[in-house]
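== Sequence entry ==
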Amino acid sequence: MSTIRAVIRGCGHYLPERVVPNSEFANTLDTSNEWIVSRSGIERRHFAAEGEYTSDLAIHAARRALDASGVAPDQIDAVIVATSTPDYTFPAVATQVQAALGIQQGFAFDIQAVCAGFVFALANANGLILGGQAKRVLVIGAETFSRIMDWSDRGTCVLFGDGAGAVILEAVESEGTSDDRGILGVDLNSDGRYRDLLYVDGGVSRSGTAGVLRMQGREVFRHAVEKLAQTATTALERSGLASDDVDWVVPHQANLRIIRGTAQKLGVPMEKVVVTVQDHGNTSAASIPLALSVADARGQFKAGDAIVIEAIGGGLSWGAIVLRW
């Protein structure tokens, strides 16, 4: 029986020009390149320039995704931006992207699920397409986490970077089987009891300031591998697929040890895992679309590949999506 699937039509990404190697942190912190690499796998990251904002990164990535997909701005029905570092309290970054691209129809809104933001945004876009609310959705993850760092905390400030990635999701009539291209399975989760493990200590209502990031790294690591493996397994089951069917895993690029641990639990070899954390650091909601776009540009994906994306972030919030390229 035919059905509608949400298919990725094209993707794009953008990174700020400034590249910050690990050695730069050794000037102000008790750390070194060896210390950072051994604990995270990160070698460098990008930081936004003064006067360069989350919306700017999102707009650049969106334009590249539109170019890659061959979709015109007047064909976009909705814009969703996943971010925890918006330019303003309001309006949404998505509305700024909408205006900059000349999209005068449809609707635009932001989603905030921290590092899991892109998974949540893509799941929402999928729901809009399956529900008939939109035929083409521009989904973006964009962050400037360099604006919320405590530069005296070596356990956090060396881990994060800035960047943006975007995809165009399009409704396509399909056969309704696990061989269809597009999104095949979704699993989303949150548990607010773990708020104190990863949070920002400011906010409009609480302090009137942006605040800085606070993290209990060991506890986050402990939760991450177990929860990421479980959500990926659930999404695969909902897709009618198993780990042996997976061609690629595109994980949230937070920490190489988490990426390896999750792959091992899933029974997927690292040769099938897209890894970009060494070059970008943890770009939060931008992490997965950045990795997707980089891997696509490298020619790693071929039509029909089964891909698992999975992420966990503050909340705690975590989830996975299985799609066929």
Summary: The first helix runs from residue 33 to 40.
